[in-house]
Specification:
The protein is mainly beta. The protein contains 2 helices and 23 strands. The longest helix has 26 residues.
Length: 360
Amino acid sequence: MKKIKNIVILFIIIILCSLINTKSYAETQMNIVTDKKEIQQDEELNIKVEIKNAQVAAFTLEIFWDSSILEYLQGPDNSNYSNNRIIYTWVSNTGKNKQDIKTEQFQFKVLKEENANITVLGEFYNEQGKKIEIENSNIELELKENEKSMTETSETMKQVGASDSTSLSVLRLNHEGISPEFQKDKKEYYFVTDDKIDNLEVTAIPENPNATVNITGNQNLKIGKNLIEIDVISEDKTKKDSYKIYVTKTTNIEIANANLEILAVREGSLNPEFNYNITDYKIEIPNETTKIEILAIPQSEKAKVSILGNNEMKVGNNYIQINVIAEDGITNKKYELNVYRRNEKEQIQYEQEKQYQAEI
């Protein structure tokens, strides 16, 4: 009888410990803190990451954002910036666990007044070297012309996107080289790898944490062309969108080069300036221009380039596609131009403004 009683007591203690640990985990959180409640275009924004109610001796953070809206300026000495990603490392100076930690600040500049997402991923370890699970942090800063208010922490910021949102805030692989840099509105990406890699880890975080993400095609990669699809289903289940990563697995990476070396248009300047790792550009042309001449030279002499849509420029928006097929005949990469042809009224106004600037 005494033995049964001891077993029951031990069982109750185990349950209580489990409940205590569950409560502790639920209270552990990672937040993003800003230095301002109001912000405007061209102003600077400072953020810090804070970890609360944890027992952590070391961690590594990865910070992602939309580089078309926020420009990264500088950060702490123990951080590195590369390919639109900040990697930040922290180690307890005593080697012991700390409960509440706040990083040094990361400085950004606001480029335009659009909603901007910042996402932080982390790997956390205690003083015994055991990995600790802490949820990722994802916030959306609301930057509006007449209502530029932001709250102080991610708890009071707008953390959940619209229920019909099918956009990602982060898309990356566990290997460097995905092209172009991630933008939430860009749906096609490219990656070339050698024959030693069979599987790729894909990190795909939706703007709305309640959206569903399904990833297929990233396991058991075959020699040749592979397709990884990341499907995002909205929280309300009314919408679905897909991001695609075209992966070439090859024994000869050199012949899988589908990058351009030069891209130029005789009739105007590309915006942004050409970079082989940027695949989308804009250009504005005169009203009288109905055809544009494009110079597109690949990095590999044996790659082939085809251009579609540059012969009949209508007034308004036009789309031109430059397709590069690598020497291997299977790896391809698409560059796109959004060409805006001015109407007659816009052309007159443009010429008047140009003349006025010349006279100043």
